[in-house]
Amino acid sequence: MGSNLLTLTFLIPLAGSLLVLLVPKESAGRACRWVNLLTSLATFGATLAVWSGWSKHTGGGYALVEDAAWIKAFSIRYHLGVDGVSVALLLLTSFVSLGGSLASWNIEKSPKGYHSMFLLLLGGMIGVFMALDMFLFYLFWEIMLLPMYFLIGIWGGPRRQYAAIKFFLYTLAGSVLMLAAIVLIWIKHGTFQIPEIVALVKAHGGLFGEGAEGLRIACFIAFFVAFAIKVPSFPFHTWLPDAHVEAPTPISMILAGVLLKMGGYGLIRMAYPFFPTAAATLGTTIVVISLISIVYAAFVAMAQTDFKKLVAYSSVSHMGFVTLGLASLTPEGHNGAMYMMLAHGTISPMLFMIVGVIYERAHHRDLDRFGGLAWAMPTYGVLAAFGIFASLGLPALSGFIAEITVFLGSFQSFPRLTLVATVGMVVTAAYYLITLQKVYLGDTPAVYRDKAHYPDVSRRELLVLVPLAIVTLWMGILPDGAMSIYRGDLEGILEGVKAIAGKP
Amino acid sequence: MTALGALLPSILLTAGVLAVLFADAAAKGRRPLLLPWISGTALVAVAAVAVAWLAGDRLGDRVVLGALRMDAFTAVLTLFCAVAGLVSILATLVGDGNSRPGGEFHALVLCAVVGMSVLAAAVDMVTLYLAFELVSITGYVLVGMRRADRLANEAAMKYVLFGAVSSGLMVYGLSLLFGLAGGTSLEALRAAVVSGASSQPVFVAAVVLVFAGFAFKVSAAPFHFWAPDVYQGAPTAVAGFLSVASKAAGFAGLVRVVLALGAQPATAKEPIASFLPWGSPVAAVLAVAAVLTMTVGNLAACRQKDLKRLLAYSSIAHAGYMLMALAVWTPNAMSALVFYLVTYLFMNLAAFLFAGIVVRATGSSSIDSLHGLGFRNPWLAAAFTLVMLSLTGIPPMLGFLGKLVLFESVLREGWVWFAVIGLLNGAISLYYYALPLRRMYLEGVAEGAPPVRLAPGAAVLAAVLVLPVVAFFLWWSPLADWARTVVPSLRIGS
Amino acid sequence: MTPSLASLIPDLTPVLPGLVFWVLAGLSVVSAVAAAMAPKIVHAAFGLMAAFFGVAGLYALLGADFLSLTQVVVYVGGILVLLVFGVLLTGRAKAQLGLEKPVRVGGAVAAGTALLLGLLLAIGKSDLSRSPWLSDLPEPQGTTHAIGRALLDPEQYLLPFELVSVFLLAALVGAAYLVRRRRDAS
Amino acid sequence: MLTLALVVVLAPFGGFLLQSAFGRRLPRQGDWLTIATIGASFAASCALLAKVLGGETLDPAVVAGARFDWLRFGDVVWRVGVKVDGLTAVMLFVVTLVAFLVHVFSSAYMKGDPKYWKFFAWLQMFSTSMLVLVLADNLLVLFIGWELVGLCSYKLIGFWSEKAAPGNAARKAFITTRIGDLGMVAALMLVYAQTKSFAFEDMFRAATTGSLDSQTCTWASLGLLFAAMGKSAQFPLHVWLPDAMEGPTPVSALIHAATMVAAGVYLVGRCYPLFTDASLLVVAAVGGVTAVMAGLIALAQDDIKKVLAYSTVSQLGFMFLGLGCKAWHAALFHLTTHAFFKALMFLGSGSVIHACHHEQDMRRMGGLWRKMPITGTTFFVGVLAIAGFPFVTAGFYSKDAILAGAWHMHPALAWVGLGAAVLTAFYMFRLFAMTFLGKPKDEHVFEHAHESPLPMTLPLVVLGVLSVVAGWDLVGWHTKLLEPTAAAVTSAGSVHGHEHSEVVMTLAIVAGLFGLVAGFVLFAKTSPARVAALKRPFAALERAFARKFGFDELYRELVLRPAYTLAKILSWADAEGVDGAVNGIGRTARSASRGSGWADAKVVDGAVRGTGAAVLAGGGGLSRLQSGRFRTYVAAGVVVVATVLVVLSF
Amino acid sequence: MTGFLEHIGLMHFLTVGAVLFCAGIVTVLARRNAVGVLIGLELVLNAANLNLVAFDRFGPAPLRGSVFAIFVLAVAAAEAAIALAIVLNVFDSRDEIDVDEVSALKG
User: Fold this and answer.
1) What distance in Å separates residue D642's CA from the closest CA in chain C?
2) Is residue B388 part of a domain?
3) Do C111 and D635 touch (CB under 8 A)?
4) What is the pLDDT of residues D124-164, one digit of tens each?
5) Which structural domain range is residue B136 located in?
6) For residue D251, how far is the Cα from the chain centroid?
7) Which of A381, A414, B187, C161 is exposed most, by the fewest CB atoms within 10 A?
8) Contact predicate B254/B277, CB 8 Å
9) Is A455 helix (H, G, I), strand (E, B) or coil?
């Protein structure tokens, strides 16, 4: 097991981030773009290697484990490992980041800073998905915050400072709660290692021993809030629209594509397995929160006039499915939630790229000022329609499979509440079609007709959009391919949780 | 450890004072760089002695001359204050204020360090009071050093008047304690407290009054009002010296006094989430003060427009966190306090150094003067950002470790709500620590702004301070273990 | 002097210490209040002087002869003179007016009385009050000799004694520096 | 047998891929390619029909082999496969035939349209998804086909989406059907929760053996009905169909006559075992009401395509009525016959519109028979068929069977059916008379009219023949096909095969003839002035019919407007409320009272800003305390010490 | 009647001390002139000294209080000197020593 492939995987982006800084000043613009692209490619390759490494690993538990003592005083270990769930999300991260690095091709404002922050962010994200020591997990979680603050803050839109500080404060407040919970666990049980804690929970039927149910629920809430801010679910979602509207296109892609999945991953890896009983008792509240996220965000999206804000709210709505699926504690629910993470992880970057393409040309995102773009830019129109219908949940595309599986799963545990969620499908259809019609159909105002300013989608942009479309289609028609990666481990985790939570 | 051995640091420093004064007189105005050299060597010598004490085990923690307890804690604090003094002197050469101070400046700094090292070791009320006052009056003069500057004068006046009144309260409190203990030594006081003196109402009154004095010294609420005005009026290096050295000495003195007063540590330890352990009045006062100080520091800082005032409120907030450790009062918490003090030293000195450099370069200490610094001098801006984030407690930086160790010790005692308030306070602090970042990076650079040049000396000093802030993470456990060794010598509760 | 005069005055010896105490206490308290409330700062300074004398008397009553003498010499002779100089030097200052606006004085007095109430309650309730009467205590001997030995005895107060020398040096240097006419352009 | 089924589906799908990829560059923009593929599919379905007629059914072994595991959850496996039985064979035949004819018709009708190739691509995709829907062996794949059909109809209705109206119509269609689909999703969830599988066999076995309790069955079947109402534009979800006429006429013919709308009926037919008596009653009620309502509305329409659209809605109502009355066999027979003559009439109206340069208002037409004999005659045959002209037309047999079934169930339902039949005959003949008979009302239109070219008239003739022949039990084709499936599908249902009760037949004949004669008298013979006079008393009624009973306005007020305002309020709340949660009720109440519209100055924007405001307010308070004056500093300290002393000493 | 005259106990001295202490605090709060504050300060220190001497006399340990008082006295002297120097500086730079006017640094 001595392979240190995992360390390599997250070191490549960090090394790239430093390398970019050393690029000579005058050719800064062109050179660091390429460094960024090559590093992202290398990272993607590394994740593929991790995938094959993982598939060759037989026997339960985590693959490619690297475990070394790090800080003896606090029994913190440099403990990395992957299972099906992490591999799937690692692949998603590197794939979306590859698209992101391509999309950040013409960043003029101090490119060296931008690309080094970009790669630092990538390193942080990859680290989060493979850390098995809770302290290391927290470390990566925070490392990722800093570059995101600068990326939104410096290269963002007009109100970027406000959006950046809001993003930073929200996530920091959440992670501070998580830190308290992590330290409490360490105090009571003396370990930061996730596998050990899960084993403890399995052995004693819950952390903190008998009679500490109140503390267990408090800790679960701490974890849940920290991750719900990231997901984001209903009460904590207000940072997302601002962050998205102000972030530059490639960063919105990564923000939507990967950062939101960390919340879900955290719930799957830590919140539910650590406190199954608390999860069961709070099940109904979580479902209600998810329902509000789905339906509320869909309605708010309908009233938006800024294209990007609309897509942001639709992300909130779709991510509501993740918490809904997880709360149902059924095989379909869990698999559906994970599938929604992967599906949304490919569809939303595509949508943000589409918004980015038109923003780069028109320099505004006001829905009412667009019209008939499908005729002015045909291929762009087709791709946009594809993205919109994928996000709408049209069958033969990945969105549909995820929604249906989550519905089937959550119906078994919360029949009446799930019916409320189906309303979301109609509202989503409504606002997306209204947008499609406002922006792409109808008559084309003169300004969008001249080819000079509004050329059709360029080869580079195609290189970003088409792979995402292909994956969405593949995941829609043959879902078992993607699902087989994480199904085994995810259901193993679910069995563990259900055994203790006492759910039928 | 002979009496003379114990007094070695004070002797060296006093010799330094005399040497500086004579050199200044001899040089008659032609102020060579001799003066900083003399004071520098004196301080380095003292630091060396302290390190020798720590390395060797000859400390034997005996009480010397009836007033000084030479244990590891004293050695650490002496080393701490010597280093702080040295850095402050170097910072003055580099920062704002007159960069070629006269002999008096060096003399006063050395006297202050004498006071601090004695305060850290004092186990007798009289010595404690004297050392406390020595540190204060040197502070008053250092703040008022720039005689021509209206603001400096105003700051000095407020500082001296507020300080005098607070120490007046303290002396009155000490007099009452003297009555209870029947003797001036803290040992006698401890004996009295153990034999039930703490149940007397006058004891509580005395505790509150004594705490008033120490609250002034460590700028804890409600005696923190002087700090923002003084830090803004004083030269930045002096402000840095006050915020680190005199505060650390204040904490050391407070530990000694609480060691005596809080003989029974917070006995009533409900298992979890008991917010105010009314076990002993000392713990209650400290806990309330901690929460008050943290909140005041963080809330007020959010509205600041001036960099030095912001750093003042930030140091008040950090005093609040340190008071938390005192309120919890367990061996674990004490080692966490020492650990936090070390992290606080590096962070705060670096922050005030950078503030000094910026004020010197741009002439004004308002946060807006940082405009576009990120592009005008990337390395300085990057270092300043790292320090700011470390003060907030963002991981891989040093500040996070300090907070982690601190909150771990608080949580271990089951004070969950106390820890949560602290953590949330930390989160709020991001808002004002990010203000400078915003000015430096997020607002782009005005074309005409001149690039800010960093003097080589300042660069070296900055590097020395910032390096541990970032790299400390790698060898974190040695410091944690070492901090743990310091505590047993304090002989708490035995 | 005819015994009649002596006999006129009632034999006060048993009551003398009490009488002296009340006189001195009265003097101190009244003069302290005067120092606080006097409209002109000069009157406040004189009030303070009277308070110093009252306290010096109390020290003598308590048998601390050396201390009452030092009190008179240092406080009245040194510090009071210093303050008076301060008052005169800043005489030209616009704000020669003595007291604060009435509402602030009222607030100050209220805070003061609250503090006094708290202190007296605390002291009253604790068992300090059951200490023996002054008159029952043994006769006080001269204290100067004992103080002198205490100051230089390494087991007692030798260290503070040395420390106070550094302290005074620092004060001297500092004060001199602050008030030196601007010889240099610092 | 299995390969045939696969060819039927994959041929048009291949056509779609090729056409959308290379359509533009192919000669004649690839219309021949698509016609060929749909032709192949039609041939395969004929072969399949012959095989099934020959009694050969798919042996289970082959079928099982054809299945493959699509998704696995724990121990549950979702299998996906193909199912061919009598019902499927009939549906395949109908769909592919009509699709083929529409392709041929469009090659002429759509000539010269800039996006000519794109039209055929989407026609192919539509056919594929319809065939997937029909061939699916489980409810999930059926649902996938169902939604894809919705997508294609969105694309085809909104084909000319440069103009706003088609775009809005397409969106309306998609969203209304999507609302219906909610029912399908609910049904899916209900069934899956208990049986953990979607395959029809498992479902029906569970339904019959009772492992699916009747309560779930009823709710599931009502869900399916709701979806069917959406897709087949039954009352109250019918609002989208008339607007869908914005699409090109061949689209209306293919989608809104034969296939898509029929999918609803097919769904109910396929999942018949799920329907308990209670749900069947609802089906019948919905069918009946829709038949009558649609008939009345059709009466008052002047646009030729809108009349046909409402007649489709009415006929579908008829079929649902039949299904509701357990006349499963009759309803599906009517489905097939209706497909033929309705497609005929739509294409006929297409050729009329094509001839009169896209003139759709009947009031401007008249006397076109002389100018367009073939279209005229075939159209006349269609009118007779739909009116149920006795013994000759197919319509008569199928409608009669439904009425017989209805009569058996409950006489009242039969009378509703008869009423609808009269209305159908009446408005159909009115349409025919106004278009083809009488004097031409608009010289310019009449002048210009000419007979359509061969590719448009040939399909009309074929459909004309079929709408007559289909009725005769030539080769007893529908009995052989539908009977076995009927037996398999309905439990001990009292399904009447073909037996006529004489009373009903005579009534049906009388109703049909009466309608035709009345139509003839009123519209061919009497002058328009007298007709107007006759109609005057019913003017108010007519206006109500014309405005489709105000359903559009009703929905706009009840559903759309509240939805938009709710969205606006929530969006404002999100920016102010949830975000500004901390800034106190007072301020939000005040800004809400001042005409809430989020446009007013953003008082406090966002939770961080909310908490931020609180923090800043706190900071503000403190900085006021930091007044710079020494006095306040000491006072604060002393006050605190004093209070602590006083408190602690008590 | 004469009882209250003979029996003078520790309480009496402590009370006088407390009154002096509070008078000092009131002076500090009430006086606007910086020198006035110094006067108040001296009063507070005197009160403390009085307490020390009183405890020394009534308490068991010999003469510890007086030594402490002497040191307090020394400190008071030095402090007064420093404070006065600073006040004079302030007077030089802005021609007034009114504690309330001197409030440029605030917020």
Assistant:
1) 5
2) yes
3) yes
4) 899 999 988 888 888 888 898 899 998 898 988 888 878 88
5) 3-489
6) 13
7) B187
8) no
9) coil
